């Protein structure tokens, strides 16, 4: 079994990469998390993978019950979290644990519910999207949204296992697949110029979902994130902060749109990465050549490079709620070259506003 370790002492766990769910039962037996599994997912994912997951749970000698949530970012609400917590209380299992089966929304919501119920019960992640496999399922950030901003209510709560079945990525819609590629591009920009070059030179293989190419990018991104999280689990040393490249403006775009789905998370992050790279160039710390490479790669992977359907004012208001800002001072992760970023505080508001405006052109 190919795997990567997230090393956090007694909270350590592995990220497993497989082409099926065949090894899941033995991993569950090894972990001995409980006897009753609450499988949190949405109806679409349940119809595609629910039976396979339940069969794996049964092979491990476990009981299972599905708990369905809506299939959109709006599921990440306090109302939905409270509904889930009530469902967990009615399950009745003495040794209860959560299986978060789905993409980033399910993983965040399921992990948050697991962290809150009885002050914390075990959970595992079975991510079914590229975005979740390379990013959101790893690292223990679990949260729900408020109308004012994204992920404003949450905690750090690590899973006991992340089990990534790479084969499920072949069935994703083109939009969902491209959304995940935005996070892959992020990892390349912040730490790995070789990965960036791989993406540039293997675009066709990746877009036709070649399994070898998918294994390459999922494992590389997971290894990068595992290494960063192992050094700075709770973002106290600013090491983990680099993972927010593109997310400052990206999250503000999502919030300004009311989490309507007009832009997927990855699409918003792609726009946020372009804006951050342009801000960096405006500040004189990033080259026009590397900026062009980032914009081209985002465009070549089918992600939008222009903004529509919301106002600059709404985005700026959403930015003011960003939890990454300190004492009201903005903080941006800005590239200085492909493979290296810096954290910049106090970027002039006029520069931010102008680069958001440029996204409309």
Range of helix content: 40-55%
Q: What would you say the CATH architecture of the largest domain is? A: Up-down Bundle
Corresponding CATH superfamily of the largest domain = Dehydroquinate synthase-like - alpha domain
Determine the CATH topology of the largest domain: Dehydroquinate synthase-like, alpha domain
Strand content: 15-25%
Question: What is the string of helix and strand elements?
Answer: EEHEHEHEHEHEEEHHHHHHHHEEH
Sequence of strands across the biggest β-sheet: 4-3-5-6
Q: How many strands, which pairing sense, and closed or not: the largest β-sheet?
A: 4 strands, parallel
β-strand number: 11
Number of helices: 14
* Termini separation: 47 Å
**Overall form:** globular
Mean pLDDT: 95
- CATH class (first level) name of the largest domain: Mainly Alpha
| Tally of individual domains | 2
Q: What is the CA-based Rg, rounded?
A: 20 Å
Task: Note poorly predicted spans.
Answer: none
Helix/strand structural class: alpha/beta
Structure, explained:
This protein has 361 residues and is α/β, with parallel strands linked by helices. The strands form 4 sheets. The protein has a 4-stranded parallel beta sheet with strand order 4-3-5-6, sandwiched between helices. Helices cover 47% and strands 18% of the residues. The chain contains 14 helices and 11 strands. The chain has 2 domains: 2-171, Rossmann fold (3-Layer(aba) Sandwich); 174-358, Dehydroquinate synthase-like - alpha domain (Dehydroquinate synthase-like, alpha domain, Up-down Bundle), CATH 1.20.1090.10. Helix 2 links the parallel strand 3 and strand 4 (63-68).
